């Protein structure tokens, strides 16, 4: 029988940390009460956050140069779901998995769905892959997919997306995310307007096939793998496309898909205002689409993004229903540990954003008091809500310290023995 993390493992680890966490939680509760904040309300918010983990983030990623497999890493979808279940057991904020097709095509969707359900998991947005060729594929995506100059290639790429919808329906998913690598490496290679027109035409075909109750998410990216131009390069183009498509199409923001220093929180606010925010692929980056762990490079940015989200949530903005997903590539860490750490950082930013005194902020804005407006945000950002997050997790059945409990359980060591390495193909993640 494969080793499984049990409630006992978690309880045992929680026992060791309990006194310190409870003391810190009480102290935080008193400090927040002085600011008129009810700590229990925030615990409830922390427990309400839900973030999907990417099936492709559960194995070791790689760069364009090399991939160094980790011990005991999952070798197929079932093993990935085992690991995703552990991430959920310990964090209690990641009950869903987002599948990449064909990297993680379920052999038997009903069996996969049942396997996941037995482990407390459901399926979030499906993801198509027309940015690389598969062995059995008739036509190549070397020069594009949904926007290829050859209509037959475009048709093949559309058909792949329809297959994702079919699989997703069998799994109980309710959204589909399209990211394409289409673009040009050289000026003149791609006719900008024609390529975008083909993109829209292809997406119309996918949109028309969306099952009842589903949403279509499209993901922009400024460069890579194309190094000169991409067809869906920015949020403005994305917004234009989803507006053309109809009410069930939305723009997804992957934090790594913008030029350095772009004001992403403002893009988020714009998409909220236009009723077109699909949700997120969370990660962090220093240079480009580095797919580093959420909050590892620019924690203040994640806070500012959540500040916009919480503002919209509290204002009950009509139609506001963003989907949260992680999209990371783990090259030097244990993927399960990185996903746990990232999920905790998102919960932290979410709770901190709830700490912003919005009435006070509005007053400073009205008085043009720039310094105090920033100070109001910083007061929330500087508050260490770690004990609150720990208690929220533990009360929901998770661990005070997910990574600590994971290591103490010996999960990875046991999986290393159970999962003898088999050669995995595929290079980097883009
Ligand atoms: C892309 C994009 C997609 C992801 C692939 C692996 O850069 O972020 O969302 O599925 O990478
Ligand atoms: Mn992404
Ligand atoms: Mn990416």
In words, what does this structure look like?
There is one protein chain. The protein has helices at residues 7-34, 39-48, 77-91, 109-118, 151-171, 192-208, 235-245, 264-273, 299-314, 335-354, 358-366, 370-382, 386-395, 402-409, 411-418; strands at 52-54, 96-101, 122-128, 175-178, 183-184, 215-219, 229-230, 249-254, 277-282, 323-326. The chain is of the alpha/beta class. The strands form two sheets. The chain has an eight-stranded parallel sheet. A two-stranded antiparallel sheet has the order 5-7. Helix 2 (39-48) crosses helix 10 (335-354), helix 3 (77-91) runs parallel beside helix 10 (335-354) and helix 9 crosses helix 10 (335-354). The relative contact order is 0.16. The mean pLDDT is 96.
Computed CA radius of gyration, to the nearest angstrom:
22 Å
Neighbour order of strands in the largest sheet: 1-2-3-4-6-8-9-10
User: Mind describing the biggest β-sheet?
Assistant: 8 strands, parallel
Oligomer: single chain
- Apparent shape: globular
- The low-pLDDT segments are none
Which ions, cofactors or small ligands are bound in this entry? beta-L-rhamnopyranose, manganese (II) ion
* Structural category: alpha/beta
- Measured by DSSP, the beta-strand proportion falls in 5-15%
| Total DSSP E strands | 10
What is the string of SSEs from the N terminus onward? Answer: HHEHEHEHEEHEEHEHEHEHHHHHH
Helix content: 40-55%
Query: CA-to-CA gap between the ends?
Result: 36 Å
Mean pLDDT reading: 96
Total helical segments: 15
Strand-helix topology:
Layout: H1 7-34, H2 39-48, E1 52-54, H3 77-91, E2 96-101, H4 109-118, E3 122-128, H5 151-171, E4 175-178, E5 183-184, H6 192-208, E6 215-219, E7 229-230, H7 235-245, E8 249-254, H8 264-273, E9 277-282, H9 299-314, E10 323-326, H10 335-354, H11 358-366, H12 370-382, H13 386-395, H14 402-409, H15 411-418
Parallel strand pairs: 1-2, 2-3, 3-4, 4-6, 6-8, 8-9, 9-10
Antiparallel strand pairs: 5-7
The chain binds beta-L-rhamnopyranose and manganese (II) ion (MN) (2 copies).
């Amino acid at each position: 029988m494969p080793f499984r993390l049990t409630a006992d493992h978690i309880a045992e680890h929680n026992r060791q940390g309990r006194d310190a966490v409870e003391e810190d939680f009480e102290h935080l509760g008193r400090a927040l009460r002085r600011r008129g904040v009810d700590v229990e309300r925030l615990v409830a918010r922390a427990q309400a956050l839900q973030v999907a983990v990417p099936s492709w983030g559960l194995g070791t990623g790689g760069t364009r140069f090399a991939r160094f497999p980790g011990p005991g890493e999952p070798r197929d979808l079932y093993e990935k779901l085992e690991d995703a279940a552990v991430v959920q057991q310990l964090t209690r904020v990641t009950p869903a998995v987002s599948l990449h097709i064909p990297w993680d095509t379920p052999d038997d969707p009903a069996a996969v769905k049942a396997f996941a359900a037995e482990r407390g998991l459901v399926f979030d947005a499906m993801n198509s892959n027309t940015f690389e060729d598969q062995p059995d594929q008739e036509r190549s995506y070397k020069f594009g997919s949904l926007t290829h100059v050859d209509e037959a290639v475009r048709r093949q790429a559309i058909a792949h997306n329809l297959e994702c919808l079919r699989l997703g329906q069998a799994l109980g998913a309710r959204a589909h995310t399209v990211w394409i690598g289409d673009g040009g490496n050289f000026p003149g290679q791609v006719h900008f307007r024609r390529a975008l027109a083909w993109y829209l035409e292809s997406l119309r075909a996918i949109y028309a096939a969306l099952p009842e109750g589903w949403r279509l998410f499209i993901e922009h990216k400024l460069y890579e793998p194309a190094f000169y131009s991409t067809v869906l390069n920015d949020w403005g183009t994305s917004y234009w496309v989803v507006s053309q498509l109809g009410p069930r199409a939305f723009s997804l923001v992957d934090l790594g898909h913008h030029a350095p220093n772009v004001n992403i929180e403002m893009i988020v606010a714009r998409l909220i205002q236009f009723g077109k925010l699909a949700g997120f692929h969370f990660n962090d980056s220093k240079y480009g689409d580095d797919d580093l762990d959420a909050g590892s490079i620019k924690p203040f940015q994640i806070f500012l993004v959540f500040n916009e989200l919480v503002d919209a949530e509290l204002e009950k903005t009509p139609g506001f229903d963003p989907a949260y997903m992680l999209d990371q590539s783990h090259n030097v860490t244990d993927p399960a540990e990185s996903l746990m750490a990232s999920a905790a950082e998102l919960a932290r930013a979410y709770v901190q954003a709830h700490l912003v005194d919005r009435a006070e902020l509005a007053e400073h804005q009205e008085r043009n008091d720039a310094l105090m407006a920033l100070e109001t945000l910083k007061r929330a950002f500087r508050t260490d809500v770690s004990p609150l997050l720990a208690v929220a997790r533990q009360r929901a059945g998770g661990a005070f310290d997910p990574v600590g409990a994971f290591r103490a359980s010996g999960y990875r060591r046991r999986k290393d023995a159970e999962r003898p390495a088999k050669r995995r193909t595929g290079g980097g993640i883009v």
